[in-house]
Amino acid sequence: MSKINFKVRAKWSAKDALDVSVNGKTHQVFIDDKSPLTISAAKTFKGDKTKHNPEDLLLTALSSCHMMSYFYVCAQQGIKLLDYEDEATGTLELKPDGSGAFVSVTLNPVVTISEEKMIDTALNLHKKANKLCFIANSCNFPITHQAKVNVVNKG
To answer: Which of 49, 62, 114, 139 fits as disulfide partner to 43, beta carbons 3.0 to 4.6 Å?
Structure first.
């Protein structure tokens, strides 16, 4: 088994938080060789609604990881993907003490393929992609899929 390490640096400054144009929960995240991300708390938690928040990013990570895992398994089965779109939703449960956790996420991938005979395979591969997804494998809540497949016959 091999291990791969990832590194992210988060930075917040009281000086920035005092700036009237910046929400007190807004901060930046730096990842080597990538543009910085400006992140805040979710609007519900008095954050800047125009910024990404950790909850959005968790759903983003799940949706993106599933998509890339799906691309991999489709390539293994010779399925030609023409389009992929997902609208992920998640439920965060808050507790009286202020803590909370996601209790479920649903991915709603809609894929377009070129061959009608591959519809069932394309649908079933979402299960295999979920088993391969690094992010899904790191979560302690159910991740379900409401997948749909469209076919565009070329020719």
So the answer is: 49
Distance CA 83, CA 22 (A): 38
- Asked if the model's pLDDT at residue 104 lies above 80, the reply is yes
Rounded to two decimals, the pTM is 0.90
Phi (first) and psi of residue 58, to 5 degrees: -65, -45
Mean pLDDT of 54-65: 97
Residue type, 1: M
Residue 66 contacts residue 133 (beta carbons within 8 Å): yes
| Closest listed residue to residue 70, CA positions, set 10, 149, 5 | 149
Strands (DSSP E) found in the chain: 9-11, 27-30, 37-39, 81-85, 89-94, 100-107, 110-113, 143-145, 148-151
